[in-house]
Amino acid sequence: MNETKAWGAHAGDRPLEPIDITRRAPGAHDVQIQIAYCGVCHSDLHTVRSEWGGTRYPCVPGHEIVGEVTAVGDAVAAFKVGDTVGVGCLVGSCQRCASCAEGLEQYCENGFVGTYNGPTADAPGHTLGGYSQRIVVDDKFVLKIRHPKAQLAAVAPLLCAGITTYSPLRHWNVGPGSKVGIVGIGGLGHMGIKIAHAMGAHTVAFTTSEGKRQDALDLGADDVVVSRNADEMRAHAGSFDFILDTVAASHDLDALTMLLKRDGTLCLVGVPEHPHPSPNVGAIIFGRKAIAGSLIGGIAQTQEMLDFCAERGIVADIEMIPIQKIDEAYDRMQKSDVKYRFVIDSASLGR
Fold first, then answer.
1. DSSP classification of residue 288
2. Would you say 205 and 221 are in contact if contact means Cβ atoms under 8 Å apart?
3. pLDDT of 215-252, one tens digit each?
4. How many of the other CB atoms lie within 10 Å of CB of 96?
5. Cis before 272 (ω within 30)
6. What are 345's strand-pairing partners?
7. How much helix, strand and coil, in percent to the nearest 5, is found in the chain?
8. Residue 168: is it exposed, middle or buried by C-beta count within 10 angstroms (0-12/13-18/19+)?
9. What three-state secondary structure class fits 332?
10. Rounded Cα gap, residues 268 and 250, in angstroms
């Protein structure tokens, strides 16, 4: 067993604070990782503050982890001490069901094990995440990082925001000849724009703010639509093959489905606090359109995404913070006051 410094919360109405946790000694198939950087996801905030319910305390969040291998079990062949690796949203699944057999561990029919707040035999009975100095993970759920060292902090959000946008873009065969919309220019949306553009699609960013037009163009959008401008919206009616909606607030989906071609798909990756208004079913039926959803990606596809991004120099736009600023960062996230992801410098855990 290894004592590890971490930051976590003991209740939903309490701030995060330094705590000592215990990590298991590496077993035969385990990889021990010294964490260098951990991205801050909106899911961390929701879980810590028990906004989704079911939070197990103490809660140590963090599922966008980049670090260095410091030990491996005897049966580990794919990793060695000194390797730069990542850990995303998953650290376990049943490995027996049809989804796991297809490399879709995120849809494990017996329930995947999240990097934090998931059930585990390790103390305290649930997983503790990346707001910590080190972590021990089954080698099947460890990923190779091939980006240069100078980019590693900005790689961390790829482990969640990157794969959350990459997976649906790949599943719906986005590429040259596709016209793709990315709704929302935030932590997820800014990655969606970068990745869709890199895939060769004609990429259109949707924002409610005229002030974000240049930002979207700088990220790689070929065109930008201010969704509150009715004329701009009408100009794109019936023209999209695929629209990725990253917005995690309740909104009118009809305004987006009217932009789809026949057989086009609107894919939702943001979970709103309150349900979206019911869409116009007739408009979907008469265009054979689809409203779909997508959840992160499996381990093989996450590795594919990391390699794709490394080859093209794609990383997240980040603001680095010490762990001591985490509650301030959560408050700023709720106000959308970050471009576009916070990343914790894990060296600050030792201060």
1. T
2. yes
3. 999 999 999 999 999 999 999 999 999 999 999 899 99
4. 11
5. no
6. 37, 322
7. 30, 30, 40
8. buried
9. helix
10. 11
